[in-house]
Amino acid sequence: MHGTMGLARRAVAALGLVGVGALAACGGSGATTGSGGGRTITIGVDIPVTADAYVAGAIQRGADLAAKEANARGVTLGGTKYTIALKVYDDNSQPAASAQNVSSAVSDGAVAVIEDGLGAAVSAPRSAAAGVPEIVIANGTAGLMDPQNRPSVFRLGIANDAAATLLGAYLVQTTKHVAIIHDDSDSGRDGADQLTQSLATAGGKADLSLEVPASAATFDAQLQAVASSGAGALALWGSDLFIAKVVSSAHAAHLTLPIFTAPTGESPAVRAAAGSAATDGLRFVSSRLTSEDDSTSFGQFEHRLASAESGPTDAGFKDNEGREVRQPNDLDFFAYDAVNLVVAALEKQNSAAAGPALISALGGVSVKSANGDTRGFNPQNHEGVSDDDMYIAVIHDMKFAPVQDEQLSKTLPTEDQVLSDFH
Questions:
Q1: In the β-sheet with 324-326, what is the strand arrangement from edge to edge?
Q2: Structure pTM?
Q3: How many alpha carbons lie under 13 Å from residue 234 in its C-beta half-sphere?
């Protein structure tokens, strides 16, 4: 559609520096001098450009807007004016590549890395030694946050334990017996474990939990086992593309159980790949878009983002009335907040240098979030998203809305997702 950028087209941008000219690599200093003599601070962006258009595009868009706005305001440290630049690295959704990219970003002089977080458990020693904080947006593995052993790793995204706690409590309203299918990623395994524990706490049970390779193309045996298990619902945990494949296969197999998913079920990739009939009624856990005390800031953020990105985010498909659907920018704003927190930490230490002081400063600053909340990291666990912000959404006609049978969800507004309605 004219004036919009599709998810895939926006995500597969040329790798390199966003918003500034090329920088000379200068490991460890935290700042470089550009060809015009200005001083530049680099933030690495480690994302799955070629493997997951939604995650990559959302993180890059949010980070880019925050950098542009910081530069427009002006960043002055120790009497010197700096420009914030982003350097993008493609990890292709591979943990080893993700970890190597963090090492490369450190060598390239980045002061921080905003990332999907797939390799953060491996890259943490390198980033800690360099004093370069990593802010994870899209890896919910509960044990990843460990301030004692991984002091440089922070999360501004949905943690598996928080998501599973709400989803388990919500599931038992439908059935006490649940089947789980998860992929073989660290987050997939952890999410299934967290949900199994949550179900037990809530008085339910995971009747079976089946691991399937994320690359699997067929799920016939697993779906037959689910159908024979006596479970009253199916829960899925894994990447958005994995969930899309299972949902599509379940529909083709005429599985009639209600399906509930991890936060990745929100991704437009699920609806695009599985289609309207397969995803209608699918429920997923997510984090609220608007703040409890501020109903306008998130919409204002989306409009600033649309202005910066040549239009609102086109989900890449239409509803049953033929109207193009817009994807709300509720993942983008985590990356936006992450960059603003890094800038706030640099300003607190009044220096452009990476190091232990920057990691310490990041744990103690707060900013106004894109949705109006006060955003900062809990120093005890390095989490930046509150468990209390979790809600349940349901998909209908290729769009999603908060459910009406969960305490927080029923109080939340429904975001208009018809693309042509965005003005």
A1: 5-6, 313-318, 324-326
A2: 0.93
A3: 25
